Structures are given as structure tokens and as C-alpha cells.
Automatic annotation (TrEMBL):
Residues 585-595 have a biased composition (Basic and acidic residues). GO terms for cellular component: kinetochore; nucleus. It catalyses: L-seryl-[protein] + ATP = O-phospho-L-seryl-[protein] + ADP + H(+); L-tyrosyl-[protein] + ATP = O-phospho-L-tyrosyl-[protein] + ADP + H(+); L-threonyl-[protein] + ATP = O-phospho-L-threonyl-[protein] + ADP + H(+). It holds the Pfam family Pkinase. InterPro entries: Kinase-like_dom_sf, Mps1_cat, Prot_kinase_dom, Protein_kinase_ATP_BS, Ser/Thr_kinase_AS, TPR-like_helical_dom_sf. This is Dual specificity protein kinase TTK. One of its GO terms (molecular function) is protein serine/threonine kinase activity. It comes from Sphenodon punctatus (Tuatara). Keywords: ATP-binding, Kinase, Nucleotide-binding, Serine/threonine-protein kinase, Transferase, Tyrosine-protein kinase. GO terms for biological process: meiotic spindle assembly checkpoint signaling; mitotic spindle assembly checkpoint signaling; nuclear chromosome segregation; nuclear division; protein localization to kinetochore. Residues 585-609 are annotated as: Disordered. Residues 598-609 have a biased composition (Polar residues). Its EC number is 2.7.12.1.
Length: 609
């Protein structure tokens, strides 16, 4: 009975996602099985032994068979250098994870290995999505030490030493086995080694699984100072270059259109691209985005050309769009000379324990202005997330237009080939409308400017509550179903800022026709603080005198800060303003008897003037 229920659930999911076309009745021919079961730009490949996949799913459907098939598939090449293979592998691993219920296989070592390897492959494309997969693996398979070590190694590779240590300590606390493996990892972390498990310990991992191995890298064309074209270096994907002092010339340089840029450090990476912070002879800082096109498919090449075209078009219309100063395109690579920022919004959010309301409001307005600009020029981004915004001198700027789409005049929506976007920020219509195929056989989804509003709402939700609306749902299929289910209520815990709560609720309406627009958001009271009209001017003056009199009674900077926060919250609630609770009683009596009358008189004279 349980198997029948599971089969019905799978068929329902498959029909919604349009990933598998009637595997049993319509696709007995191996060449017609769809390979796209993940949410990345994966091209269908009919040479991946689809018959084997069908057999696994229709018979045993167990982790052992899946893992055996997946490991054989990996032997066909090196996913770090073969983007096509990487996409196929991610698609197959995604299919395996979707087909294997966690509640049934959480104690299975092969299932744990599938989850870990899936996360490792995702890390080559998108570290943020990889982190979600590592969380999933650790949540479902916490008994296996290698799962925790893999996650910890990933965080270490991202420079998060504290997080790495926390993961290993929690693994010890939950008695993950073998404990000896965790002890070795902790010891190597304290010795500041880049690998938690040395080579001689790697065989202890089940099946030779290796976390954070050096193979996860791309060759980055750099030239020595003698400009020899053969001077190429190799940089591990997970290990940024050591920062170089601006006063010391770098041994690694990049030449774009004949101009020399000294590499200071690597500041980003993902897929087939890397981003470096560079310095010119004039001591000007830039960011250089390098894209390796040697193994890229046509869709990837077009996405980067698309990004260049959008940046060239939009940067002159808004200072909230990242600046592109120059670029170079060859058959082998793309170089983009761009404005260098301080930190992306995603990294900033991770470092912030609490967010100042004024910072949140300021960044929100920056995001709205940037997206409003692209919408005015007929562009739908379709993949907005915190990592797509860069903080430059205290201002948020929109970056990364790789999968943005141009809308034609007088058209309110467009249909995209294949599903794109990050699940935690994906609008319902991008999922529900994936019920048809384009001419190229890929699934299609209908999006509009309102789709970007939903994604922005998810970002603001994260800035308010510390997580996205559906982030707590770890199963990807369940998450997708919750996003499109009108009966699944999104939680909006109470907050002091009523206007902020109103914005969140109106952005996260599932029906895009009922969702608030960017233009409306730009005029919303949350963005523009409107003074309440007071008919009684004398009453307003007296109120101000009273508040200022209370503030005078505060000596401690901390008390002043707390009082200011309280006034802000009271103002948002629309209640009366009062900070007397922060004033020392003795101080209040002394002020009332001595100096406060004089101060009040001075204030009165000031307002009278």
C-alpha cells in the first residue's frame, strides 16, 4: 500500500514539473527519455542509458542501484572540465534524490553518498545551491561522519573556518561514526591545513569518497609579466588566491585588449567563470570576470553575451546597475572589466546577526530602483537573489544578467525555454506553467515582471526574518509543491514595522495579476516615510518639547540608542511617543527641579522662532 501511495505521489509531481513523459507507456525507446529533472540549465541527452534509469525506477529503486549507475556515468569524463557532463550528472543526481524518499533511506550509506556527491557537483556550478544540498545531506544522514566532514570541508573552502569548526563539533555531539575520522578532521583544522582529511586517511571514506579534492578546479588563463601566451596557471576552485598587497606587483596578470591588470585575489567563482580583483598601473581597482568558453555549449556562450549586452544598455540609465568598463570576446574566453564592489548581499546577510531597519529599507529601495530600470527597458531578470546584488560604497547594485530575457514592446509576459532560477526565490508561475514543450523539446515557463516582484519579496523576507519563506522545507519536491499550493499559508511573524509587513504580504501573492508592481512598491509608504499631517501645530510643538526633554535625561550612549529604537518602533505602530522608561528616576526629578525648565524655555524659544 505504501508503494502505491509513493507511486501516485511521484506521478503527480512528474505531471506538475513536466519532467518525465509517461515513462511506462510512451517512452519505451531509450532515445526519447527526458534528462532534465534538475533546476539548472541542463540540456537533454539521449545517450545516458535512459533504459537503465527506467529499470531502476520501475523495479528496486534503491540507493545501491542508483549509486552504481551514477558512478559509472562519472567515469565518462571529468565534470570539472566537461560542462556538458557536469550538467548531465547534476540532472541524474537530482533525479536520484527526487526518486529516493529520505524518510526511507536516511540510514542507508549509499543514499548519504548520493546526497554528498550531488552537493559536491552543485558546488562547481553554484556554491549557494550546494550549501542547501549539504544542509539536506546533514539533516537526513547525520549518522555518517563523512557527510559532516564533506559539509565542513566545503565551508572551509569558502573561508568559513568558524562554521567548519561548528559543523565538526556538532558531528561529534550527535555521535556520527566513525568518531576517529572526525577527530582527524578537527585536528587538521586546528593545524590550519587546507584539507580536513590527508591523503593517507581518504581511503577511510566509504567507497573512496573524497571531500574537497583538488580536482574541483578550472584552468584560468593568466600570464606572467613577460606576457608569454603559454604562461597559464591553475587555481583550485574552492581555494581563493592569496591576497596581494597593492604596493607589491603581482606575479600573475591578465591582459585585456592589450592592457595589463595585476591580479590581487580571486573574489568569486561559479560554473565556467571566475572573478578576480585586479589593479591597474594607475592603482585603480577593478573586477575582472573571466569565462572559459572552450567547453561551454552555445546556450552558455549566449547567456554571457546576453549579460554584456544588458549591462551596456542599462548602466547609462541607472547607477544601481553594475558598471561594465570594457570586455573582450574570443572563441576561447570572455573577459569583462567591471566595477569592483565590497561584498555581495548574500555574503553580507550571512555576516549580519541583526539588520538595521534603515539599512534594510535603503537596500530595498536600491533593489527596487535597479529592477524598475530593467523593466522599463523590457527586461525580466527571472533569477533575482541576494547574490545578484553587490554592495558598492554603501549602495546595492544589480549584477549578473546571464538568464535575463528581453520582452517585446506591448507584450506583458514571455515564455522561457527550460526552467531557471533558484528554488528559494522562484515564483509560483515559473513552476506551474511548465506544462508545455518548446520546439527544442525543453520545458517552457511563463514569466513576467511580476515574477521578479516575487523574488524581491523573498529577498526582503530573508532580510526581515533571516530565511526565505520556504527555506525550512528541505525536500525540494515538497518545497516546489508548497510554493504553488494556494492553501499553504506563508508565515508572517509579527513585526513592529506595519508598512514592511504590508510590502511582504503584497509581494508574496501567488497570483501574479494580484501581486503588487514595482511602480507601486516605489511609492509605498515603507519606502517613502510620509509625515502624518497634524492639524494642531501647537500640539506637535509641545510633543516635541516633551520628547526632547526626556532625551536630555539620558547619559549613556546605549540608553540613547535604545530610546531611539523605541521611538522608531512607536512611530511605526502609530502610538504615542514616550521614552521616559529609559530615564533614571533620580535624574528625572533633578532635571524637573533644576535645569529642565531652562532647557524647555530655550526649546520653546527655538520653536517659537
Amino acid at each position: 500500500m505504501e508503494e502505491e501511495d509513493l507511486s501516485e505521489r511521484w506521478q503527480s509531481i512528474a505531471s506538475i514539473m513536466n519532467r518525465v513523459r509517461d515513462l511506462k507507456n510512451k517512452h519505451k525507446n531509450e532515445d526519447n527519455v527526458t534528462d532534465e529533472l534538475n533546476f539548472t540549465k541542463v540540456s537533454a541527452d539521449t545517450t545516458d542509458n535512459s533504459g537503465t534509469v527506467n529499470q531502476i525506477m520501475m523495479t528496486a529503486n534503491n540507493p545501491e542501484n542508483w549509486l552504481s549507475f551514477l558512478l559509472k556515468l562519472e567515469k565518462k569524463g571529468v565534470p570539472q572540465s566537461d560542462i556538458s557532463l557536469l550538467n548531465r550528472l547534476i540532472g541524474r543526481y537530482s533525479q536520484a534524490v527526487a526518486a529516493l524518499p529520505a524518510e526511507k533511506h536516511s540510514q542507508d550509506e549509499s543514499y548519504a553518498r548520493i546526497l554528498v556527491r550531488f552537493a559536491e557537483l552543485k558546488a562547481i556550478q553554484d556554491p549557494e545551491e550546494a550549501r542547501d544540498q549539504y544542509h539536506l545531506a546533514r539533516l537526513n544522514c547525520k549518522r555518517f561522519a563523512f557527510v559532516h566532514i564533506a559539509f565542513a570541508q566545503f565551508e572551509l573552502s569558502q573561508g568559513n573556518v568558524k562554521k567548519c569548526n561548528q559543523l565538526l563539533q556538532k558531528a561529534v555531539e550527535c555521535c556520527a561514526a566513525p568518531q576517529e575520522m572526525l577527530e582527524v578532521a578537527l585536528q587538521n583544522l586546528h593545524l590550519q591545513k587546507s584539507q580536513l582529511l590527508p591523503d593517507e586517511e581518504k581511503e577511510n571514506l566509504p567507497g573512496g569518497f573524497v571531500t574537497g579534492h583538488a580536482g574541483l578546479g578550472f584552468r584560468t588563463p593568466v600570464v606572467k609579466n613577460n606576457f608569454l601566451p603559454g604562461g597559464q596557471g591553475s587555481t583550485p576552485y574552492f581555494q581563493p588566491l592569496t591576497p596581494i598587497s597593492a604596493s607589491v606587483p603581482s606575479n600573475e596578470c591578465i591582459v585585456v585588449k592589450g592592457k595589463l591588470y595585476s591580479v590581487l585575489k580571486q573574489i568569486g567563482s561559479g560554473g565556467s567563470s571566475k572573478v578576480f580583483q585586479v589593479l591597474t598601473k594607475e592603482k585603480q581597482l577593478y573586477a575582472v570576470k573571466y569565462v572559459n568558453l572552450e567547453e561551454a555549449d552555445q546556450q552558455t556562450v549566449e547567456s554571457y553575451k546576453n549579460e554584456i549586452a544588458h549591462l551596456n544598455k542599462l548602466q547609462q540609465h541607472s547607477d544601481k546597475i553594475i558598471r561594465l568598463y570594457d570586455y573582450e570576446i574570443t572563441e576561447q574566453h570572455i573577459y569583462m572589466i567591471m566595477e569592483c564592489g565590497n561584498i555581495d548581499l548574500n555574503s553580507w546577510l550571512k555576516k549580519k546577526k541583526t539588520i538595521n531597519p534603515w539599512e534594510r529599507k535603503s537596500y530595498w529601495k536600491n533593489m527596487l530602483e535597479a529592477v524598475h530600470t530593467i523593466h522599463q527597458h523590457g527586461i525580466v531578470h527571472s533569477d533575482l537573489k541576494p547574490a545578484n546584488f553587490l554592495i558598492v560604497d554603501g549602495m546595492l547594485k544589480l549584477i549578473d544578467f546571464g538568464i535575463a530575457n528581453q520582452m517585446q514592446p506591448d507584450v506583458t509576459s514571455i515564455v522561457k525555454d527550460s526552467q531557471v532560477g533558484t528554488v528559494n526565490f522562484m515564483p509560483p508561475e515559473a513552476i506551474k506553467d511548465m506544462s508545455s514543450y518548446g520546439e527544442n523539446g525543453k520545458t517552457r515557463s511563463k514569466i513576467s515582471p511580476q515574477s521578479d516582484v516575487w523574488s524581491l519579496g523573498c529577498i526582503l523576507y530573508c532580510m526581515t526574518y533571516g530565511r526565505t519563506p520556504f527555506q525550512h522545507i528541505t525536500n525540494q519536491i515538497s518545497k516546489l509543491l508548497a510554493i504553488i499550493d494556494p492553501n499553504y499559508e506563508i508565515e508572517f511573524p509579527g513585526i513592529a514595522e506595519r508598512d514592511l509587513l504590508d510590502v511582504l504580504k503584497r509581494c508574496l501573492i501567488r497570483n501574479p495579476k494580484q501581486r503588487i508592481s514595482i511602480s507601486e512598491l516605489l511609492t509605498h509608504p515603507y519606502v517613502h516615510i510620509q509625515a502624518h499631517l497634524q492639524t494642531d501645530t501647537n500640539g506637535t510643538t509641545e510633543e516635541m518639547k516633551r520628547i526632547l526633554g526626556q532625551l536630555i535625561g539620558l547619559n549613556s550612549p546605549n540608553s540613547i540608542s535604545r530610546a531611539a529604537r523605541t521611538l522608531y518602533e512607536q512611530c511605526n505602530r502609530g502610538g504615542s511617543l514616550d521614552v521616559s522608561a529609559f530615564v533614571n528616576p533620580d535624574r528625572k526629578r533633578g532635571q524637573r527641579n533644576d535645569g529642565q525648565k531652562c532647557v524647555s524655555q530655550d526649546l520653546s524659544n527655538t520653536f517659537d522662532k
